Amino acid sequence: MTAHNVSIALPDGRAYEIRIGSQLLGEPTSWQGLPKSAAALIVTNDRVAPYYLERLRSALLARHASVEALVLPDGEFHKDWVSLQTVMDTLLERQADRKTVLYALGGGVIGDLTGFAASIYMRGVPFVQVPTTLLAQVDSSVGGKTAINHPLGKNMIGTFYQPARVIADLDSLDTLPDRELRAGLAEVIKYGPIADAEFLTWIEVNLDALLSRDKAALAHAVRRSCEIKAWVVQQDERESGLRAILNFGHTFGHAIETGLGYGAWLHGEAVGCGMLLASDLSARTGRMPADFVDRMRRLLERTSLPVVAPALGVERYMSLMRGDKKSEAGEIRFVLIEALGRAGTHAAPDDLVAQVLETHGGA
Ligand SMILES: NC(=O)c1ccc[n+]([C@@H]2O[C@H](COP(=O)([O-])OP(=O)(O)OC[C@H]3O[C@@H](n4cnc5c(N)ncnc54)[C@H](O)[C@@H]3O)[C@@H](O)[C@H]2O)c1
Ligand SMILES: O=C(O)C(=O)C[C@@H](O)[C@H](O)[C@H](O)COP(=O)(O)O
Ligand SMILES: [Zn+2]
């Protein structure tokens, strides 16, 4: 399979490539052109390390005299201060200098955490994203949002800090559990209603191929998702407007993740369910026809993503969503679909939000 590159160009001449293909980890050209330094630190977790750590380490030894690894405990629950402190301790104990390159080997949890660490260690060292989940390949490794969670809110502490490159090796998806593959598909589905109606139809037609891990279908899904994300991020790197469309389903979704405790539902599961609720809110506010909600429900059900929200109660949802980063002066703002392939950020009447929660199990 040939590799596909998606480029992302940002202000001040900053740019980087997202390389998508097979056998990229062991391919020397994957790493060419990246900062060459004496030392590198691979940050990964105890689930991913047995599969891919040695493969990455041996590829990097051609570029760095020393390639060390930090293996963190696995899980969303560990995207926190303690893990961040562990990365800082490791860098300081090894006297890592400001040319040290960090490599994030894993899913979105490792990517967000390592990116954040790279952005603050000595006020910034280079880092490379090596995403190994579908979700990370289609979304989290691209665009430079880094963060850790706080018990009171998801991704509340973080920075915007871009990687030097993204290496999305599709072969790493071979070992991904089915539940994680389906969670990743939630973020793929997201790109259809917000930006590309044809892509939504393509996903519907090719869903069985994606679920059976057909490499060509996965390659197309990753590439198109990255193209759309790059198109958005290039226009609005720091989310002053347009970028918020990438948060479709996340206002409800983040409330679910925080409300249940991190890790109870996967991020993609919470976003999938959140997209159904946000689709319904788009219909109830008169922006979309009711059959769009049915269409989203059918697609999410076929993907085995949850379509019944956890019953946290309307007041708890409201309180959690008021803490969302898109809120302004205590007013919750939702990403709503305005037409297939177009979205925007809007406030919504509380009674309609309550109706949505009552209809889909959240109350
Ligand atoms: N920065 C962004 O723009 C952005 C975008 C979307 C999501 N996120 C964040 O990403 C996180 C979710 O990412 P995720 O879904 O990748 O979760 P994750 O990082 O927890 O990975 C999912 C699970 O799969 C395991 N795993 C990873 N690669 C594997 C492989 N190849 N084979 C077998 N197991 C593997 C992980 O160890 C973990 O158990 C959330 O914290 C979310 O907030 C960030
Ligand atoms: O890149 C973005 O912008 C996104 O919103 C992508 C989301 O899928 C992702 O979950 C992101 O981390 C959510 O951002 P947040 O600012 O709401 O924490
Ligand atoms: Zn997300």
UniProtKB/TrEMBL annotation:
<comment type="pathway">
    <text>Metabolic intermediate biosynthesis; chorismate biosynthesis; chorismate from D-erythrose 4-phosphate and phosphoenolpyruvate: step 2/7.</text>
</comment>
<dbReference type="GO" id="GO:0003856">
    <property type="term" value="F:3-dehydroquinate synthase activity"/>
</dbReference>
<protein>
    <recommendedName>
        <fullName>3-dehydroquinate synthase</fullName>
        <ecNumber>4.2.3.4</ecNumber>
    </recommendedName>
</protein>
<feature type="binding site">
    <location>
        <begin position="132"/>
        <end position="133"/>
    </location>
    <ligand>
        <name>NAD(+)</name>
    </ligand>
</feature>
<keyword id="KW-0456">Lyase</keyword>
<feature type="binding site">
    <location>
        <begin position="74"/>
        <end position="79"/>
    </location>
    <ligand>
        <name>NAD(+)</name>
    </ligand>
</feature>
<feature type="binding site">
    <location>
        <position position="267"/>
    </location>
    <ligand>
        <name>Zn(2+)</name>
    </ligand>
</feature>
<keyword id="KW-0862">Zinc</keyword>
<dbReference type="InterPro" id="IPR016037">
    <property type="entry name" value="DHQ_synth_AroB"/>
</dbReference>
<comment type="similarity">
    <text>Belongs to the sugar phosphate cyclases superfamily. Dehydroquinate synthase family.</text>
</comment>
<dbReference type="Pfam" id="PF24621">
    <property type="entry name" value="DHQS_C"/>
</dbReference>
<feature type="binding site">
    <location>
        <position position="250"/>
    </location>
    <ligand>
        <name>Zn(2+)</name>
    </ligand>
</feature>
<keyword id="KW-0520">NAD</keyword>
<feature type="domain" description="3-dehydroquinate synthase C-terminal">
    <location>
        <begin position="184"/>
        <end position="327"/>
    </location>
</feature>
<keyword id="KW-0057">Aromatic amino acid biosynthesis</keyword>
<keyword id="KW-0963">Cytoplasm</keyword>
<feature type="binding site">
    <location>
        <position position="187"/>
    </location>
    <ligand>
        <name>Zn(2+)</name>
    </ligand>
</feature>
<comment type="function">
    <text>Catalyzes the conversion of 3-deoxy-D-arabino-heptulosonate 7-phosphate (DAHP) to dehydroquinate (DHQ).</text>
</comment>
<keyword id="KW-0028">Amino-acid biosynthesis</keyword>
<dbReference type="InterPro" id="IPR030963">
    <property type="entry name" value="DHQ_synth_fam"/>
</dbReference>
<keyword id="KW-0547">Nucleotide-binding</keyword>
<feature type="domain" description="3-dehydroquinate synthase N-terminal">
    <location>
        <begin position="70"/>
        <end position="182"/>
    </location>
</feature>
<dbReference type="Pfam" id="PF01761">
    <property type="entry name" value="DHQ_synthase"/>
</dbReference>
<feature type="binding site">
    <location>
        <begin position="108"/>
        <end position="112"/>
    </location>
    <ligand>
        <name>NAD(+)</name>
    </ligand>
</feature>
<dbReference type="InterPro" id="IPR030960">
    <property type="entry name" value="DHQS/DOIS_N"/>
</dbReference>
<dbReference type="InterPro" id="IPR056179">
    <property type="entry name" value="DHQS_C"/>
</dbReference>
<feature type="binding site">
    <location>
        <position position="145"/>
    </location>
    <ligand>
        <name>NAD(+)</name>
    </ligand>
</feature>
<keyword id="KW-0170">Cobalt</keyword>
<feature type="binding site">
    <location>
        <position position="154"/>
    </location>
    <ligand>
        <name>NAD(+)</name>
    </ligand>
</feature>
<keyword id="KW-0479">Metal-binding</keyword>
<dbReference type="InterPro" id="IPR050071">
    <property type="entry name" value="Dehydroquinate_synthase"/>
</dbReference>
